[in-house]
Q: What sequence folds into this?
């Protein structure tokens, strides 16, 4: 099974994206397809044994659209000068055509040469030429509408195309009769309707494009933060190269004021770095030898040399962009509902328009009135606002999340986060910083304290557990060399087993002693370590305890406030930890946590999550993304705190790049506001069509409330603009929250 994101050209509304999506899903070999209107791409899962990328491109073309190949970058059009100039020219022309065709009705000064009574031929020819200019201007709309009708996926362009061509052909027929001498038909010309419909659709597209581009800015900024060039060391000399020339293992230089080119590890020097673009943390971070650096980070004040490790599409930035794109291509349930409605909406409108046209004729109305009513219905019902209602809000929110260090793998998280009622936290590395320090050592061996810690550090250097860093840091700080470790083995939830100089060592917790049936003669010392809030590492040599080492951790500065805020929102807070009960209870009480479950193995954590869900709880699990992967995967929403260097392999649904628990509150807040915003958008989109279609049919004519195609096209633009502006308000969610706080 392969997955690819294709760039798609030719989509203009939700009927387009929904039609293409349904068409792709019908094809043999395609397992899943999701089409994104705002991002103009399609995410496709397919069987590579049955299909190739060329086959997928062919399917897209068969559906009436064009595939531009594999998605390479987020394109922000920034509405080029040509489009802007075209709009300005046609704005002048629309004013001119409206003045010529309607000026005499408003008692405005008329142009004698173009007066419909004195010079009817000039009047007809000029309006015909001007309307033809607008048909050329909107030819892409007419072409798209025709293609989608042929492929049985009628869309907004289909409605506009039928309306415009109906008006134009009727006006052309009336013009022919008028030119033959029957001047009564001069008043049956609707060339200005053709022009205004196309003009307002183009104006709407212009506004839409600018708005869509704004929704992509946060993601685009991630792509452009990396420098175009870098300085590499070759044979002791510095050389400037382009990024595509960098290979894994190369040593690069970054000086004060420069940006990191690729992800890597510092091998020389130290400096403060600005990583706000990816973590959301505004404070500079101090990094030195063996610390990892992220592409795009700005070096404030030092000189470093670093080893290239992740380049090109493997960099953290590329992984983030990939995750955000995949997330935006997944659909929230409320979006699927809107898509389903949109797929039936366009055909229904066409049927309503045709029935109304026939009914008017049967009621004795003339063909002019019947046709204008048909055109008005088609134009006023264009589902632009319906198509933008959900995807635009989702893209804005996902961009907001990405720019604040919150990576969401599925957009449905934005719909579900605010529905959760229970949050389960891991302790070490989640509620605490995970940077443990040695508090006290009870040494029962003949080894000196330094010799003992060298052995422990040598074994722990193979582990990724937060406790391991305590001992490896000791070796680094004291410039001590590691010993040769053999037969290293991790025992999940228990500890580590290894051999040094033919002696077997066990490092771990009390459960490890119980499993290995090792007698503990140092209960009093263990109790003392627990009393002072330490986690205990039992050190066993050849089945005999040779040391107890007490390590303690620091609670995250924001943890207490975040938990208090979550409880105010109605969440039940649970802490799960493999640590001893005394230490867990002390931290739990300090943070005012509702329920504390200690001394649990990773598999026990997932069982607890399972039981909570069986009891009807909607659960968020927040952990470190490594030891907690089973419970993260099992929870309704798995949230992982992560350094940002292993994004792609994480088992969670949400990754907090900033390692800040406040991001959980931000996520829930964004979720609440996003769903509210989508519901508002859908309400206004449906309200608009519910109101305007009966109005276009003429049901309110007895009350002298009527509209024509020109007013209908303007109303269509205003409805889309309302939805766009409402969606863009989401950008200010976190700013308002910060001001409020």
A:
């Amino acid at each position: 099974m392969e997955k690819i994101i294709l760039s798609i050209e030719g989509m203009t509304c939700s009927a387009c994206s929904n039609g293409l999506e349904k068409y792709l899903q019908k094809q043999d070999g395609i397992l899943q397809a999701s089409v994104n209107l705002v991002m103009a791409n399609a995410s496709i899962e397919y069987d590579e044994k049955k299909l190739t990328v060329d086959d997928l491109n062919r399917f897209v073309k068969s559906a009436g659209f064009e595939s531009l190949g594999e998605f390479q970058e987020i394109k922000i059009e920034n509405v080029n000068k040509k489009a802007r100039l075209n709009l300005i020219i046609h704005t002048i022309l629309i004013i001119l055509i409206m003045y010529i065709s309607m000026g005499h009705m408003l008692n405005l000064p008329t142009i004698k040469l173009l007066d419909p009574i004195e010079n009817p031929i000039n009047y007809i020819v000029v309006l015909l030429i001007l309307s033809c200019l607008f048909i050329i201007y909107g030819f892409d709309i007419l072409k798209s509408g025709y293609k989608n009708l042929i492929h049985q996926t009628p869309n907004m362009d289909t409605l506009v195309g039928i309306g415009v061509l109906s008006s134009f052909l009727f006006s052309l027929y009336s013009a022919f009769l008028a030119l033959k001498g029957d001047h009564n038909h001069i008043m049956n010309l609707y060339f200005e309707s053709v022009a205004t419909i196309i003009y307002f659709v183009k104006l709407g597209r212009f506004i839409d494009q600018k708005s869509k581009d704004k929704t992509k800015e946060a993601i685009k900024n991630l792509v452009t933060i990396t420098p175009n060039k870098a300085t590499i060391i070759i044979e002791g000399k510095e050389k400037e190269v382009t990024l595509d020339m960098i290979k894994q293992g190369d040593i690069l230089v970054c000086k004060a004021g420069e940006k990191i080119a690729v992800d890597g590890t510092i091998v020389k020097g130290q400096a403060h770095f600005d990583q706000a673009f990816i973590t959301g943390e505004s404070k500079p971070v101090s990094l030195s030898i063996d610390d990892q650096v992220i592409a795009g980070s700005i070096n404030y004040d030092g000189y470093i040399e670093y080893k290239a490790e992740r380049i090109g599409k493997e960099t953290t930035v590329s992984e983030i962009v990939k995750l955000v794109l995949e997330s935006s291509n997944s659909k929230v349930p409320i979006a699927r509902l809107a898509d389903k409605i949109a797929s039936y909406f366009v055909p229904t409108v066409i049927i309503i328009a045709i029935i109304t046209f026939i009914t008017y004729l049967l009621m004795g109305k003339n063909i002019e009135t019947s046709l204008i009513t048909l055109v008005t219905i088609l134009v006023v019902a264009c589902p632009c606002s319906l198509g933008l209602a959900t995807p635009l809000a989702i893209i804005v929110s996902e961009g907001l999340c990405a720019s604040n260090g919150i990576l969401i793998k599925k957009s449905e998280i934005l719909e579900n986060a605010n529905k959760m009622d229970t949050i389960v936290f891991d302790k070490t590395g989640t509620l605490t910083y995970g940077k443990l320090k040695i508090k006290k050592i009870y040494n029962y061996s003949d080894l000196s304290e330094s010799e003992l810690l060298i052995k422990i550090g040598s074994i722990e250097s193979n582990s990724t557990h937060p406790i391991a860093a305590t001992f490896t840091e000791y070796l680094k700080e004291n410039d001590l060399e590691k010993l040769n470790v053999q037969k290293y083995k991790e025992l999940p939830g228990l500890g580590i087993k290894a051999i040094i100089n033919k002696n077997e060592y066990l490092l771990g917790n009390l459960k490890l002693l119980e499993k290995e049936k090792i007698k503990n003669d140092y209960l009093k010392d263990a109790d003392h370590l627990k009393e002072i809030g330490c986690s205990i590492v039992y050190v066993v040599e050849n089945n005999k305890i040779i040391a107890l080492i007490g390590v303690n951790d620091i609670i995250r500065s924001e943890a207490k406030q975040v938990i208090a805020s979550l409880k105010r929102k109605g969440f039940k807070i649970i802490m799960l930890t493999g640590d001893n009960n005394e230490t867990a209870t002390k931290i739990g009480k300090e943070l005012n946590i509702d329920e504390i479950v200690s001394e649990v193995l990773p598999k026990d954590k997932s069982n607890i999550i399972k039981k909570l869900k069986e009891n009807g709880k909607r659960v968020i699990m927040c952990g470190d993304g490594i030891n907690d992967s089973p419970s993260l995967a099992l929870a309704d929403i798995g949230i992982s705190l992560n350094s940002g260097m292993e994004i792609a392999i994480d088992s969670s649904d949400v990754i907090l790049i900033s390692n800040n628990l406040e991001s959980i509150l931000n996520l829930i807040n964004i979720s609440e506001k996003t769903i509210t915003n989508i519901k508002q958008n859908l309400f206004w989109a449906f309200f608009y069509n519910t109101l305007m279609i009966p109005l276009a049919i003429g049901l309110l004519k007895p009350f002298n409330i009527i509209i024509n195609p020109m007013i209908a096209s303007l109303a269509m633009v205003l409805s889309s603009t309302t939805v766009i502006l409402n969606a863009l308000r989401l950008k200010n969610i976190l700013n308002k929250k910060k001001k409020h706080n």
Observations:
- Confidence is low (pLDDT under 50) at residues 643-649.
- The domain at 2-70 is CATH 3.30.70.100 (Alpha-Beta Plaits).
